[in-house]
Amino acid sequence: MYHEFFGLKEPAFSIAVNPRYLFMSDQHREALAHLLYGIQNGGFVMLTGEVGTGKTTIIRCLLEQLPENTDIAIILNPTANAPELLCTICDELGVSYISDELTVKNLTDALNEFLLDNHRKGRKTVLLIDEAQLLKVPVLEQIRLLTNLETTTEKLLQIMLVGQPELKKLLARPALRQLSQRITARFHLEALTPAETKAYIHHRLKVAGLPDHQRPFSDAIIKKIHEFSGGIPRLINVLCERLLLGAYAQNQHNIDKQIFASAAKEVAGTATHQEEKVAAARTSWHALLVAVVAAVMVAVWFLLPDELSTSSAPLANAEAVNEPTQSSSLFASSSSTASSSAQNEQSPLIAMATRDLVAAQLVLFDHLSLAVGDITNPCLASVAVNYSCEKVRLASWDELKDINRPGLMTLATSDKKWVYLLLVGLSENYVLIIENGVERIIPWRDIAPLWTGDFYYVWSRPQGFEKSLQLGDKSDLVTWVAEQFAQLDQQPAPLTRQFYTEKLKKRVELFQRTQNILPDGVIGAQTLRRLNEVLGVDKPLVQLDEQKIPALLNVQGSEAQGL
In terms of CATH, what superfamily is 476-534? Predict the structure, then answer.
């Protein structure tokens, strides 16, 4: 919603890699030139940089510029041993090998035969290893030996190592000096300069469709953004997204110092450097008294039983079913407290909600027709039903729509107490709630100011899903995902087992495109939730037809009309 407030057609600062938002600084162009030169001349090519500096951007741009006669194997999770890594490389390139004879020699021979055949066909072969700082020394030595596969005139395999600065330290070891000497091109990405930060922000806003008359970020604020982020593009994205959200919450089209301070706290999870200096300068007895009281409160807190502490992790046990944390400063400020309080006192929504979180969760489970193993803790893991309770902090209507699950919205009363409302349907301007078993349609504008951003929902979380699956991963979960797609496509057998192959990646990308998800082939929670929806495993939110809502509101009665 706040993107429309600024006249943007889409989020300008999403951390997902989108080629449309590609920003190439001078050093990014130089890095790309180094890598292209290295690949053309064979051997090893190395790209390093801190997290979020744009390594993935460089790699994607590089892959787009490779000749059409190039075959590439991409390894995204290089924690395997040497035989497993060779298996993954063979799977990526479609090399046939005998699965019962997984020795290094047999796999290397099969790969060498493939490379020679590719060379005869006039094709090049590239091996890209991301997160290469995770490679073990024996595996790196085996990778070095792959460069021995050559003809009398050229290398048969070009290898690209991409990683964090630790990769440079790793290759500096004496045991890896032979590998280090074979690196024909290397480049280390630094953070953006202040001028590049400004150009980066303006570039993303322009691509997202910012109107010419809008200028949410002043030069002074951009300077603060650079100082806070250190010029790291990913941090710039996160902070700018929070700043736009904060300005929208304050109904302002320009970011000021107060909005920046609130967003910086939200992103950093701590006070800004300026506030720390002010706090250190306070030497009055009043400040000392406050510090003593705070210390006592902290001590009492740590002495409380564990079950009284809160958690933002998935609600898999009794300790996780508790009150939510304080609402983000982006949702409420001191200047709006009075108006919010008055609105809360007048809003019938508060009366519709319940203070009892456990009772609210029982209603949610009943709506989803899920069995409850423990009525005192509905989110306790159940053997009979494979589900997961999760509490998330959302920032917008868009993120709520993305979750697309019935759940409990946490509202704040005028006296700063938490109440819970069951959301089961959604449209652009309305929500569908359930109160005492009765469905009610509520305008979004009435519920948005009261919502803290906390949302409890339930979904069928696959067993073993702890992090996103990427090309090259190996696990039972890969098999499970492939089986779900086989069921969806009505195929007798899955595309793969254990190994996340290129074939499965392409099927995932196709599914993501049909679901309006960034088609990156990475299987995360969003893709799994959508897969569950398509297969009918999870119940999604009801999609309200806004053309029929006026008639439904008339039927709903005078109480609903008064909201």
Answer: PGBD-like superfamily/PGBD (1.10.101.10)
C-beta separation of 82 from 138 below 8 A: yes
| Gyration radius from the chain CA atoms | 27
Contact 138, 146 (CB under 8 A): no
Tell me, what's the pLDDT at 516?
A: 80
Closest CA to 328 of 410, 233, 442: 410
104-120 and 137-146 helices, crossing angle to 10°: 30
Q: What is the DSSP secondary structure assignment for residue 41, as one 8-state letter?
A: T
Per-domain boundaries in the chain: 2-18+192-270, 26-189, 277-303, 318-460+554-561, 476-534
In sequence order, the 6+-apart residues with CB closer than 8 A to the CB of 279 are 271
- The average confidence (pLDDT) of the chain is 79
For residues 169 and 176, the answer to whether their CB atoms sit within 8 Å is: no
Count of C-beta atoms within a 10 Å radius of residue 199:
15
Q: How far is CA 525 from CA 388, 510, 532, in A?
A: 12, 17, 10
Closest CA to 347 of 412, 441, 436, 406: 412
pLDDT, tens digit (0-9, with 9 covering 90-100), for 41-78: 666 888 898 888 888 878 878 877 787 888 888 887 78
Residue 219: its pLDDT value, please? 92
The one-character DSSP state at 415 is T
Low-confidence ranges of the chain (pLDDT < 70): 1-2, 17, 19, 41-43, 152, 269-346, 380-386, 551-552, 554-563
Question: Is the pTM of the predicted complex or chain greater than 0.85?
Answer: no
- Pair of tokens at residue 456: 């409890």
Quick check: 171 and 144 in contact, CB under 8 A?
no
- Other C-beta atoms lying within 10 Å of the C-beta of residue 4: 9
CATH fold for the domain made of 2-18+192-270:
Helicase, Ruva Protein; domain 3 (1.10.8)
| End-to-end Cα spacing for the chain | 21
